[in-house]
Specification:
This protein starts with a strand and ends in a 5-residue tail after the last helix. The chain has two domains: 2-167, TIM Barrel; 195-252, Orthogonal Bundle (Muramoyl-pentapeptide Carboxypeptidase, domain 1), CATH 1.10.101.10. Helix 1 links the parallel strand 1 (2-6) and strand 2 (23-26). The radius of gyration is 19 Å and the shape is globular. The protein has helices at residues 11-14, 34-40, 72-81, 96-105, 198-209, 222-234, 245-252; strands spanning 2-6, 23-26, 46-50, 59-61, 88-92, 114-118, 141-146, 163-167, 195-196, 219-220. The protein is built from seven helices and ten strands. The strands form two sheets. Strands 1-2-3-4-5-6-7-8 form an eight-stranded mixed barrel.
Length: 257
């Protein structure tokens, strides 16, 4: 997983004192700052965002005031035809289904693009079915904190005019080969009563790594069961809230994107 920043202000001033892994910046519109970001941070990946539908950059901004949701598919197809590999489509997670319909109309499938959702929970995550709104699979990136959404930016981001996103491992390149699933621990994880142990913690940690909003505390209680049921439904497994051998191995399988 990685972290990506963006701002409508001067990138150098806004991100001063922060460790910058990756940026998104505007290639056009009133906040155009892509060139400044490239100059100030030449050694990190920088997405160029198109907000006007001019067919530039590698990311399109689809929200009120920028490009319409219905144009996401045609914009993405245009960028693919121009040689951009898996262009990024940015939108509020509540518009997931509208964006998927737009892609379909343009003859594209989900894997042709990188989805970058906005879902301001104040906690790093990648949107999945656990977020609702008809999300299928797992988003490639999620903007989880913003100065426009009160109390969602923790220290050291608080007080800055910026957004913070989590990105998956292949957002800016090829994904490393997934680590093989550790051996099934030999016992099903279920509740009640709550179960605890290193096997529980290992499963929770992998689910968190996949982007599910789960506490990694080594205790399999009601919240872990709720997440397990949602994951099982997404993967077309038996939905029983029990981490058995099939659910265990599915947890380490490559996410469907």
């Amino acid at each position: 997983m990685g972290t990506m920043f963006d701002t409508t202000d001067d990138p150098r001033r806004t991100f001063a004192g922060l460790t910058v892994e990756a940026l998104a910046a505007y290639g056009n519109g009133r906040y155009a700052n892509y060139r400044a970001a490239k100059v100030e941070f030449p050694h990190v990946p920088v997405l160029e965002i198109d907000v006007l539908g001019q067919g530039i950059g590698d990311a399109g901004d689809f929200e009120a005031g920028d490009m319409p949701y219905s144009e996401a598919g045609s914009w993405a197809k245009g960028r693919i035809d121009a040689g951009v590999k898996r262009p990024v489509v940015y939108f509020s997670v509540s518009r997931w289904q509208a964006i998927m319909r737009s892609l379909g109309v343009a003859g594209l499938v989900r894997s042709d693009v990188r989805t970058w959702t906005a879902h301001y929970t104040g906690k790093p995550h990648l949107c999945s079915s656990a977020c609702g709104f008809g999300v299928t699979g797992v988003a490639d990136a999620t903007q989880w904190g913003s100065s426009d959404a009160p109390d969602t930016l923790p220290h050291p981001f608080a007080g800055r005019n910026m957004d913070v996103s989590m990105t998956n491992a292949r957002f800016f390149g090829e994904q490393p080969t997934p680590a093989p699933a550790p051996p099934f621990p030999g016992r099903d994880l279920h509740q009640p009563p709550a179960m605890s142990g290193e096997d529980v913690r290992m499963w929770q940690a992998q689910m968190a790594h996949r982007g599910w909003p789960i506490a990694v505390d080594g205790v399999y209680g009601p919240e872990s069961e709720r997440i397990c049921r949602q994951f099982q439904a997404e993967k077309s497994l038996v939905v029983d809230g029990v981490v058995g051998e099939k659910t265990w191995h599915a947890t380490w399988a490559a996410p469907v994107t």
